[in-house]
Each structure stands twice: as structure tokens, then as C-alpha cells.
Design goal:
alpha+beta; five-stranded antiparallel sheet; 2 helices; 7 strands
């Protein structure tokens, strides 16, 4: 049986500077670039927790709360908050720092679901998670509800998708 692990064991911190090529016409970080950073840090956190290969199963949302400007540093913190049999919920917090003034803003929050897979590409068991801090405990305690909401959302998406026909040209 897999040994349980503390949330902090999966912690990933990624910091980058926002260059002009990373920005849109408003001088702020492309949303898609930030989403790639989020998926990357979440994947590393999940692999640290499971010590297995993983795939992204879903992204609940990426709520953009504050723009990230050219020249800012962008810092992402990710860790596993809740687990099922083979799935792991990963919380990602995004902050930006104006490197000239020192002002720091919370810019985005996101939850992703990662699934551990074996060498044949089949889902495989992951360790349970042990929350320690108040933030970790709150995220853990609300994790089951989010997991149930994801299952319902997936079911609704599958029902919607079954109504669409694929056009072959």
C-alpha cells in the first residue's frame, strides 16, 4: 500500500520574468502562456506526490484576478491538496511582483486534476495526502466536494458531446 504524503512534499515554486514576447498588445502576460505555466507546475507537483507518470485530466478553471505586466516576475506555487484512487487535485496560486516597487498581487487561482498512470498507460493508485497548515486543511476538506462537481461536469460534457456529429470532409 502507498504511504501517505504531506502536501508540502509536492510543493513546486516556479518564478519567471515576463518578457515582451510573453505579452499581448496591452503589455500583459498572455493568458495561454500563464495556463501553460499552470499546467507545467501542476504536473510536477503531481509527479512529486505520486512518483509516477501523470496526465492532465481536467482544469476546473483559471480565474484571472489581476493582470501580470511586462517586466513583472510571475511566481506559481502548486501542491497536491486532495487525492482519489489515481487522481490528484492540484492547487495552483499565481502571484506577480513589480520588481521595481516590490508590490505583489495575487493574480490567479486554479485547480487541476492529474491522474497517475502506469507503464501501460492505465490509471494507478496514488498515496493519500496529509494536510498540515490551515490553508492545506481547508483545501483538503473542500476537495471531496470539488471532486464530485468535476464528475458531474464531466458527465454533462459527455452528454453534450454525444449530440455533436463530426463532419468528415
Amino acid at each position: 500500500m502507498e504511504q501517505s504524503k504531506f502536501c508540502k512534499e509536492s510543493l513546486v515554486i516556479k518564478t519567471s520574468i515576463v518578457f515582451p514576447t510573453d505579452t499581448n498588445t496591452y503589455g500583459t502576460l498572455f493568458g495561454g502562456k500563464l495556463m501553460a505555466y499552470i499546467d507545467d507546475t501542476a504536473a510536477i507537483a503531481a509527479m512529486r506526490h505520486a512518483r509516477k507518470n501523470i496526465v492532465t485530466a481536467s482544469t476546473d478553471s483559471v480565474d484571472f484576478l489581476h493582470p501580470i505586466h511586462e517586466g513583472n516576475s510571475v511566481c506559481l506555487e502548486a501542491f497536491v491538496t486532495y487525492t482519489g484512487y489515481s487522481s490528484m487535485e492540484v492547487f495552483v496560486k499565481v502571484m506577480a511582483e513589480d520588481l521595481l516597487t516590490g508590490e505583489v498581487n495575487l493574480c490567479a487561482l486554479s485547480f487541476l486534476t492529474m491522474v497517475a498512470i502506469d507503464e501501460k498507460g492505465k490509471s494507478t493508485k496514488v498515496p493519500a495526502v496529509i494536510p498540515e497548515t490551515e490553508e492545506e486543511k481547508q483545501l483538503y476538506e473542500s476537495g471531496k466536494k470539488r471532486a464530485e462537481m468535476r464528475k458531474q461536469r464531466k458527465k454533462e460534457t459527455e452528454e453534450l458531446a454525444s449530440k455533436y456529429k463530426l463532419n468528415k470532409k
